Structures are given as C-alpha cells and as structure tokens.
Amino acid sequence: MTEENSPAGSNIDKKPIDQDDYFMGLAVLSKKRSPDPDTKVGACIVNEKGQVVALGYNSMPRGCERFSWSKDKSKHLLERKTFYVCHAEFNAIMNRNCSLENCTMYVTLFPCNECAKLIIQSGIKSVQYISDESAEKDQYKASKIMFSTAGIAHSQYESTKTITVDLFETDDNSDENQVANPENPDRNE
Ligand SMILES: [Zn+2]
Questions:
Q1: Are the beta carbons of 2 and 180 closer than 8 angstroms?
Q2: Which of 43, 120, 128, 181 lies 20 to 30 A from 158 at CA?
Q3: Are 55 and 22 in contact (CB under 8 A)?
Q4: Catalytic entry in 3, 48, 89, 114
Q5: Cα-to-centroid distance, 147 and ligand 1 (Å)
Q6: Ligand 1: distance of its center to the CA of 113 in Å?
Q7: Comparing 184 with 65, which gets the higher pLDDT?
C-alpha cells in the first residue's frame, strides 16, 4: 500500500492507523513468529469493545517443536506436518484470556474446516481474512457452508495501506536523536 493520497512531505506516521488495519496488522505481525517455512499464518481476536483478547500463529504443539514441517507427499503422513500442526486460529483460541462470545477474528488466511468448527463453537461471530487462496478446495468450501449456516459473518479484508513497523522508531525530540537521524529530519519535528 502506498500513501498516494497524502501530500508530499506530510508526516503520515503521526495519524493513528485505522482500527481494522491495526487488528489485521497484529495478525500479520503474529504470522512472522511462525516456524513453518512454507505457510505462515497469523490470527488476532478482538472483543466487542475493540480489545485484543488473543493472538496466535501456526506452530507445532508444545514439546513437539522438533517435528518436521515437510509437505512432501512422497513421505508417510506420519512424517509430514499435516497431523501435528496447530493452526493459527486454533492457537489464538487456545491463547484467549476471556470468553470469545461475539468476538471478531482477523486472520491472514481463510480458515480450514477444522478451525471453522472451533471458531463457531468458541462464540466468535465474525471473521475477516486476507487470503482465500484455497477457496476451491472442499475443506474450505465446507468452512464457508458452516459459517453461513451458523451465522458467522466472513469477508475478505480490503486495505489500501501498507503499515511499516520500525522497532527503532522514536518520538524523542532530543538533540541527541536529531544527531542520530540526520537523514530523517521529519521524524524530529
Ligand atoms: Zn485450520
């Protein structure tokens, strides 16, 4: 996403980011913690007050971290990730710190049928997702059938923005900071 509409030289970072961008951004940040080398997924669950109540990413179960992430179909199923991996939605639901009744899940990939069942049973009422790349597979069609039947709102997330997270960003206006960032004077305004 670009900031095409912002006037040149404006300090866009001083404006708060949109609430939905914030929650989906947390899901995107969470997926960066995933050890899966092929498919990284993140999820963020938010309650009706707009409070984040859980985050998650796909991982192996605790104690099983050394299991293979292989998807190689020439290998026996017991030697692939399929039976073992905890999906991001599953982990986020397990990580909750309160009831998930009427919550919204922001997730980077549309949920599989197993996660869809968990989402429904947890009380989550709405799902926003970025990618729907497996929409043609039956298990994802099953998710949509279940969501529609159970009254779970689900829609693909649309944003025109890119959020950049700079861990070294500072609002410090000290002289020391200005010296430290001579090529970015706007940051010190
Ligand atoms: Zn799943």
A1: no
A2: 120
A3: no
A4: 89
A5: 14
A6: 6
A7: 65
What is the maximum alpha-carbon separation in the chain? 62
Buried b (16+ CB within 10 A) or exposed e, 39-55: bbbbbbbbbeeeeebbb
First vs last Cα of the chain: how many Å apart? Answer: 24
CB atoms within 10 A of CB 131: 13
Query: ∠ CA 178-181-184 to the nearest 5 degrees?
Result: 105
Q: Exposure string (b/e) for 147-160, b if CB count within 10 Å is 16 or more?
A: beeeebebeebeee
Classified as helix, coil or strand, 53 is strand
What's the gap in Å between 170 CA and the centre of ligand 1? 37
In the structure encoding, which two tokens stand for residue 50, read together?
A: 């707009």
Helix (H, G, I), strand (E, B) or coil at 170: coil
Number of H helices, E strands in the chain: 5, 5
- Can you tell me the distance from the alpha carbon of 122 to that of 59, in angstroms, rounded to the nearest whole number? 20
Q: State yes or no: is 183 an active-site residue.
A: no
Instruction: Compute, in angstroms, the gap from residue 188 CA to the centroid of ligand 1.
Output: 44
Q: What is the pTM of this model?
A: 0.83
The tens digit of pLDDT for each residue in 121-179 reads 999 999 999 999 999 999 999 999 999 999 999 999 998 788 888 999 887 655 544 44
